[in-house]
Amino acid sequence: MAENRSAERPWLSAYPPGIPHTIETESLGTVIDLFERSVARFAERPAVSCFGTSLRYREVGAAARAVAAWLADNGYGKGDRVAVMMPNVPACPVTLLGVLAAGCTVVNVNPLYTPRELAAQLNDSGARALFVLENFGHTVEKALPQVPALERIVVAAPGELLGLKGHVVNTVSRRVKRAVPPFGLPPQMTQRFEAVVKAGRALKPPTPTVGPNDLAFLQYTGGTTGVAKAAMLTHANIVANVEQSRVWFGASEDDTDLRVAVTALPLYHIFALTACFLFFFRLGGCCLLIPNPRDIDGFVKTLSKTRFTDFAGVNTLFNALNNHPKIGSVDWSQIRYVVGGGMAVQSAVAARWKAITGQTILEGYGLSETSPVVSVNPLGLKDWTGTIGYPLPSTEVSIRGADGAVLPFGVPGELCVRGPQVMAGYWNRPEETRGATTEDGFFRTGDVAVMTPDGQIRIVDRMKDMILVSGFNVYPNEVEDVLATHPAVVECAVVGAPCEDSGEMVVAHVVLRDESCTADILRAHARAGLTGYKVPRKVVVHDALPKTNVGKVLRRALRDGAA
Question: Which family does the record assign (predicted)?
Fold first, then answer.
């Protein structure tokens, strides 16, 4: 008889003292309410910092209300979708809040999309307006002929809202790009962000009738494994996840010590959007925006001269910082916590991070469809556990077999989730929504996991990434974790490739710091920690692995190349 039934919720007895089992959701309101409360309460505190300059809450509030007023004056309101295509620059959070304050739904867009990808997302979402950083205006120009429904384009500069310092930033950026915005965009439908804010300041901010169940975000997902689709995240989903995270970490808006969250992950990604920006906006904290985290030299330089208290990252970011020669110049003494998510944190990366910074990575888990946080390790953890911790308050999880039955502890199956943070469904995809939902209302994550008797969850791998070798399951995460412990390996990714005698074979794609390391050496290393059928049959050396802009390795691209 199965020991692990979702109704038992074994994790509750393992909660740290003082953590409630549930949260009260009725009084949370909307993201607009969160925004207005924080601007009123923390008016003189810094809300965002970028390029060495900060904007206070009242300044962010005034600019966001101006964006909302301009949108309303131009006929945009509840039910309209507005796309935001920006990296982490000050105009991005201001625009996000302004679009929501107008009653519209935000469509987050990756600025590095190709014209084809941009057109597909704008058409799928039905976005009527687009706010874009000028650096990516050329992409919009090329996509426009395929997006007939798009009516207005607002072009922002990197240093927008930062006064004289912003002017300097913009001048340098344009010199590097060797282009004068807004490029070839149609003048009749294009406006500068600064003009929008100026016009909006002279207008009365709108007061849309928006409720908790209205859509706040269309958050596109699935780009690493297949066709992107939009998770419909309501205001209730987002504010619930912020509150779940707040009580889990024991965070309070009454804290007089200013919290500064390093926000290197892009705000168009759900991890940074909720767990960094909105979470710390709720607490009166400051988001240290990193426009280009791939510039590791610049990133480390910023960290070495800036006070910060909280840090969120993904495995590849931790690994890149671990390998930077000047990481020792960074002061980690004021850190409250370091959270890892987005992809599996490898044991070798976590161990080296602890040795360098003295900080334990608290690994968590979430998805776009869950706003995103499902579970996370508790504060005060002495050592990295390799688990994704316990489900947050008001969150139910179960591990299920192919027949939908709940599996016993320790048996791998699909991780399923139910809670106030779970999306309303996929935008315009009712069949996919039904396919991703169990009969009793749990969201099927597509991740293989096991649960311990005390309710901790350990992710095994993505179901779609599993490799079948002669009938045996091979999980890439496990093989990658072993390979990453070899001193010559900078980073690695494992995929399956067709094989005549075994159906599929394991292929390792690696980036090396020591060119004398051979495939045979790596296979011997893997053989010491893995059974024979899990050992990579083929090793491919790369200068760099393909990644999403958030740093997640694109296994699909490697798999397609291998095929």
Answer: Belongs to the ATP-dependent AMP-binding enzyme family.
The pLDDT tens digits for 426-468 are 999 999 999 999 999 999 999 999 999 999 999 988 888 889 8
Residues 6+ apart with CB under 8 A from 485: 347, 348, 525, 529
| Phi–psi pair at 255, nearest 5 degrees | -65, 120
Give tens-digit pLDDT for 353-405.
999 999 999 999 999 999 999 999 999 999 999 999 999 999 999 999 989 99
Helices and strands (H and E) in the chain: how many: 17, 26
Of 450, 503, 453, the closest CA to residue 477 belongs to 450
- CA distances in angstroms from 184 to 130, 143, 181, listed in the order given: 15, 12, 8
Residue 552 near residue 272, CB atoms below 8 Å:
no
Predicted model pTM = 0.88
Contact call for residues 223 and 118 (beta carbons, < 8 A): no
What one-character DSSP code corresponds to residue 256? -
Structure tokens at 448: 């293989």
For domain 467-562, which CATH number applies: 3.90.1150.10, 3.30.300.30, 1.10.1670.10, 2.60.120.380? 3.30.300.30
Q: Phi/psi at 414 (nearest 5 deg)?
A: -80, 130
